[in-house]
Amino acid sequence: MDSTGLLRDLEPTLAQLFDRHLATTKEWFPHQLIPYSRGRDAVEDEVWSVESADLCGAEIDDAVRSSLIVNLLTEDNLPYYFRTIERELGADGVWGSWARRWTAEEGRHSMVIYGYLMVTRAVDPVELERSRMHQVSTGQVPEPPTPLDVLPYVAMQELATRIAHRNTGRLLGDSAGYDVMMRVAADENLHYLLYRDLTTAAIELDPSAMVPAIERQVVGFEMPGTGIPGFAAHAGAISRAGIYDLAIHHDQILAPVVLRHWRLESLTGLDDEAERSRDRLLARLAKSERVARRLTERLSELTGAGAPA
Fold first, then answer.
1. Residue 268: which of 202, 208, 217 has the closest Cα?
2. How far is it, in rounded angstroms, from Cα 19 to Cα 32?
3. Whole-angstrom Cα distance, residue 77 to residue 140?
4. CATH numbers and ranges of domains, the chain
5. Lowest mean pLDDT among 36-40, 147-151, 283-287, 292-296
6. Is 129's pLDDT higher than 60?
7. What Cα–Cα distance (Å) separates residue 218 from each residue in 161, 199, 200, 257, 261?
């Protein structure tokens, strides 16, 4: 089955999942989460410093600042994600309706995170704006090669984003920031569930087409944000802080979603190409697990976890 036919056959499932999403999602308002009382007018020629932040006594390190910057600039790149999803999945019917609703919900994320960062001055606003201008001007986002690739990629990406937002919120130490990040993460979780279950339905309709698409997206998976200035340094800090790293990626995305929920090992009716793709993917996931275990052990050694009392 070609991608056009598969997307057409998925329309009833998407309609059901869209209805479930609308029944589950919670209406919320960015202005109710932003602690405006901490804000103040900008001072001409003021140079930002860590001491100028108002986090109600909380002290955050550079890794958390990196995560806040990456999380926000990822949300700011929304126009390009919308372009990809609408182009690949369709602008009409239920596909278009979902893409526009998803865009409206994602737009609130950048509003509320940006508002929080500005009133608390948790990050350098000048650096942030320059990075935003570069990021949105260049418009670098992952571009899955086929419509079928979009489904597993976005499912994994939404879950990865949820994890990053939640872990950032936990490390902030500021109750207002925690509430902001948890609220955004809750939305991302609902988006993940829709795409996860939509991918499940696609696998049931045409497993031989979907297994190679899943393999491509697992092998080439990139967290959003590759166009952000200094992204490699930000990503390294985020990984070392345990906000998002390869171990988390394996244990909280690849293993529970690809292996267990999409039942990669037990799929039947695969053609020869899909069988070979599954074999390669299973080998890669086994290697990913070994790498995840080594990283976990190394982190435990560095932090003293498990050391004798």
1. 208
2. 26
3. 8
4. 3-38+60-303 (1.10.620.20)
5. 292-296
6. yes
7. 16, 14, 16, 11, 15
Q: With a threshold of 0.90, does the pTM exceed it?
A: yes
Decide: 142 and 153 in contact? Cβ < 8 Å: yes
- 170 vs 305: CA distance, rounded Å: 19
pLDDT per position as a tens digit, 19-41: 999 999 999 999 999 999 999 99
Select from 136, 133, 156 the least CA-distant residue to 144: 156
User: What is each CA distance from 58 to 64, 117, 173, in whole angstroms?
Assistant: 12, 14, 5
Give the number of residues written for the chain: 309
* 189-248 pLDDT, tens digit each: 999 999 999 999 999 999 999 999 999 999 988 777 778 889 999 999 998 899 999 899
- Residue 142: phi and psi, rounded to 5, are -60, 140
Distance CA 117, CA 52 (A): 12
Closest among 106, 116, 114 to 33, alpha carbons compared: 116
Which residue's structure tokens are 């009382």? 37
The structure tokens 């001491």 sit at 51
Q: Which of 134, 152, 133, 132 is nearest to 142 (CA)?
A: 152
Residue type, 110: S
Burial class (CB in 10 A: 0-12, 13-18, 19+), 212: buried
Q: Which amino acid is at 142?
A: P
